[in-house]
Amino acid sequence: MLAVAAFFELLGHAAAERTAVLRGYQWIAAGDLRVAFDLRFDQLSAVMALVVTGVSSLIHLYSIGYMAGDQRAPTFFAYLNLFVAAMLVLVLAQNFLVLFLGWEGVGVCSYLLIGFWFNRRLPVVQPGGRLDPDVPDETQEVWAPPAAKKAFLANRVGDVGFLLAMFLIFQQLGSLDFDDVLGRAQRAVSVADGVAHLGSVTIPGLSAAAATAVALLLFLACAGKSAQIPLYVWLPDAMAGPTPVSALIHAATMVTAGVYLVARTHVLFEASATAAAVVVVVGALTALLAALIAIGQDDLKKILAYSTVSQLGYMFIAVGLGPIGYAAGLFHLVTHAFFKAQLFLGAGSVMHANDEDTDIKHFGGLRKLMPLTWWTTVAAWLAIIGFPLTAGFYSKDQVLAAAFEHGEAIARFAWVVGLLTAGLTAFYMSRLVFLTFLGEPRWPEGRHPHESPPIMTVPLLVLGALALVAGVLLTGGSLVDGPFARFLEPVLVGELPAPLEAEATGQALLLSVLATLVAGVGLAVAWWVYLSGRVDWLALRRRVAGAWLALANRLYVDEAYELVTVRGGRALAALADLFDRRVIDGAVDGLATAVAVTATRGRRLQTGLVRTYAVGVLGGAVLIVAVLVIRAV
Amino acid sequence: MLLTVTVFAPLVGAVLLAVIPSARTAGGSEVPAAAAAEAGGAGVRAGGDQAARWVGLAASLVTLGLAVALAMRFESGEAGFQLGQQADWVRSLGVRYKVGIDGVSLPLVLLTTLLVPLAVIGSWHMTDRPRAYVAGLLVLETAMLGVFVALDLFLFYIFWEAVLVPAYFLIGSWGGERRVYAAVKFFLYTLLGGLLMLVGIVVLWYLQSRATGTGSFDYETLRDLSKDPSTQRWLFAAFFAAFAVKTPLVPFHTWLPAAYVTAPTSTTVLLAGVMSKLGIYGFIRLCLPLLPSASRYFAPAVMALAAVGILYCALIAAVQRDFKRLVAYSSVSHLGFIVLGVFALNAQGLSGAVFYTVAHGLIIGGLFFLAGMLEERRGTRLMDEFGGLQQAVPHMAGVMLVLTLAAVALPGLVGFVGEFLTLLGAFLANRGLAVLGVGGVILGAVYLLWAYQRMWHGQLTRDENRAIGDLDRREWVVLAPLVAAIILLGFFPGPVLDRVQPSVQRVVDLAGRAVGQRPAALQPTQPSP
Question: What is the mean pLDDT of chain B?
């Protein structure tokens, strides 16, 4: 509520003055380092704060129903609120270190909430996938704690990037404050054909190489938090947490922190063409890879998790493109928060009704039994596949349009990949929806699926509605522009005419039609395979066993990581341990024994313990050394 | 005067313990009524023991009170020594009793005086000669405080070696298995280092007497004495031997696992929490200001040792099966960050190092206390014997979680401030080694979270873990101050950093001076923007 009030107050100010900085107390000061608890509220922060508080309110409401009956529900809500607080610190920070406080804070809340069911074995569909339908259920029992740890550690790798980036920024510029660091950026403006074009950015005091290093290190942090290649592997595992957590933290808010960070520090990425290109390419490849893996998953939440990874890739494509894409990237962030939160909460509702089962092979025909869940999920499904006029349609098309318009080879590559991914998205999402809600019931006997209580369905209705209309509301129906983009423009692009021209609308329309067609193909294929009844999809699976198993096994990326980090790490650690005990300590003990033996043999004194002789010998040696040193100087 | 009283108050307590009426006359005036009543039915002997505990606690609390009074009187903007006192001792040799504190020693004095009462409470149930044990803790406290305040090098050395005696007996008499081996190893190893330092001190005295005709052990006099670079290097090696063993720095650390693991819990807390800081303090107080050119010369090498030590010990910690041993290696690994900060020789690194010594004391102290509490309950420290404890003892798990997160330097907790500043300082001084050290941030999370997962998460698989009780009131008294300090100082490190800052800046200036340059010319300067 407070965020909404602050938002309206912000609207009351002129666009250029919409930045409020609240100076807090000095946090860490040493030498010429001064870091205070300063908070900043501008258009970008406002958007993020509204998404965070809005979605989290709905999910809190939903959780009251979902967590009812759990003994540790108070702990759950405490963690959830701690998360919201940390997330707000993250988006409202005025310097890198306070942002890092929020960054780590959401990370630890994520750790706590993924591992919330620390002593419960959770049934999860075996990642390996199964080819023979006659073998009984292949759910594998897993622990939540390893998933929580994996999430924390993957994030830690990213955090190291964040730390080093801060060190480098401080070394070069002597401050960690956003105004001091980012505010000094200067943007060259070129005027051609009577139209001002955005030029490159330079940051006085920061060389091009340093800017590249800082931007890449920050992006490593983003890859950790926002689950991009190479650190995306933690997010699918994080689904071991309660479903509202997956919806809030691992879909709508925390994982978008990386996108926010790139947007917030966009001048650094604009100052380095290399870093920006890396963001675009990584975003594109992640979008594609995750969408492919999603096709091979049978676990309801895993599909959605890979889908989140994939959608985050879109956002990174957009913010990596530069000024042309910022608004689109954040727009997609907002709409994604709505429709993905709905999808997760809908999935939670389905699991709730099906004894916490997550295997989509065990559903089917739930449409009639769970009408509210079904209709709201349809809304979100249409949004994510980019059905015309839904929220996802506008935002995804803006991302793709930005990539196309950008013009450079890398952007075109991202556009092609993005288009392909849109098709894949339509396929795997339709597969999920068809297998869950339509077709013949396939659930085991004795199970009685039912609709969830109102406290859970009301948030679903709100989010479903937003998934449908948010696009039109925020763009005013325009394909390239709209109130949302114009609101963010001052903080992201500066006082310049919008880079997208009116003539672009026709082109954008053409691109939209193309994207919709591609998505239509994906949808049609999914229908043909999973719903038309003309294909035995389980048999098909066996026919393409090689490809299927590769996808189902997540392309063996996790296994490769495990081999290198866990096995390799353990071997190295065991070696170090052995070295420590045998070599270093062995040398010390050996020396002591040698001294003691010499002492006893040499002196042949009758009484006392060996150690007294050793002390005697040492004392003598010290005296001799002292005399020698004094003589020498 | 206040400072001297603070230092020797624990010793007075120890003497009191030695002379209070023995078992049969227990119940006298020194025994609080409650303790006497409590002990009433438990036999006369227990009554005497109980009295000893109360006396010990009172002495350590009085010391804490005195230290707080010191902190209140401390002028925070001042760089030099304050609240000092001096008197001639052995005039012919120039030995004097001279003490004083500055921003570097004050936090360490406070840390020490906080941990000792907690250690006394933590070992409340020790039944084996508790009177002598508590007395040992108090003697240890006086010796360690003495090191932190001594401004005469001879006095410094006396206190330095005085630490060994109570520590030796605490490990050797009250330790677990292999205690004699551990105690002797600890004693000999650190004694050897200390003797080399003595050589260095004697050489300094000799140089002073050669320069001016009268030898002196006075800290400030010797600091201002001009020493040529090659002499400085020799002297540095001598002092380094003492401090590197005490801290310890890899590869001089192998006495540590044996000593830490076998020592009784409260002793380990003091060894890891305070005694390891003696080495750090020595680097900051003696090496940097007295031997600036050698410190700069050796800084990259020492930083390299520290960075390698961080990673090396983190790796070893990861494969330990004994929880106490894991914490011991974790302690060494974290001390690497501190040394990295010290030898960065800049304000960020040194401020961070001093702050981190406090943070490390709180965190490692807490971890060893918890390890001890678990061992008391289950009679084992092997992590495989636990598992799912969060279900049985949620409060204990909560405290453990805070300590673990503080140890992995989560922002908002005390460890982060120290780790951030030391690494930042190291980065400004030597980028490559700092990057190496930052790797420890990942590895630290690996072994600590893995240990947490194995001991506290999962299902309760063993029946004997089901019945262990959660924290009782006494244990809360021990842990609550630590947890509170860890959170408070994480968000508000200012009060400490403000007091540390001027003194640290002075050390930086001193360490940066050229050979022959007198420090008087170097008034604390504002850092260049």
Answer: 89
Neighbours of B8 (CB within 10 A): 16
Q: CB of A582 within 8 Å of any CB in chain B? A: no
What is the rounded distance in angstroms from the CA atom of residue B119 to the CA atom of residue A199? 64
- A356: left (phi > 0), else alpha (psi -120 to 50), else beta? left
A-chain CB neighbours of B450 within 8 Å are 149
Number of other residues whose CB lies within 10 A of the CB of residue A547: 13
Q: Round to whole Å and give the CA distance between A131 and A550.
A: 12
Average pLDDT on A243-260 reads: 92
Nearest to B147 by CA among B127, B164, B130: B164
Tell me which residues of chain A, numbers 160 to 189, contact chain B at a CB-CB cutoff of 8 Å: 160, 163-164, 166-168, 170-171, 174
What residue spans of A531-584 are helical by DSSP H?
537-543, 545-552, 557-561, 568-578
Question: How do residues A42-71 score in pLDDT, each as one tens digit?
Answer: 889 989 999 998 899 899 999 988 888 888
Rounded CA-CA distance A510/A419 in Å is: 13
* Mean pLDDT for the stretch of residues A525-533: 89
User: By CB neighbour count within 10 A (0-12 exposed, 13-18 middle, 19+ buried), where does A139 fall?
Assistant: middle
B528 in contact with A, Cβ within 8 Å: yes
| Interior/surface letters A311-325, b for 16+ CB within 10 angstroms, e for the rest | bbbbbbbbbbbbbbb
Element at A196 (helix H, strand E): strand A195-202
Closest residue of A to B492, CA-based? A27
Give A108's contacts in chain B (Cβ within 8 Å).
Answer: 405, 410
Shortest CA distance to A362 belongs to which of A298, A281, A279, A268?
A298
CA distance A238 to chain B (A): 15
Residue B107 has a pLDDT of 95
The rounded distance, in Å, linking the Cα atoms of A54 and B88 is 72
Rounded Cα–Cα distance for residues B506 and B509 (Å): 5
Q: Which token pair is B166?
A: 């109570």
Q: Does B128 touch chain A (CB under 8 A)?
A: no
pTM of the complete model: 0.89
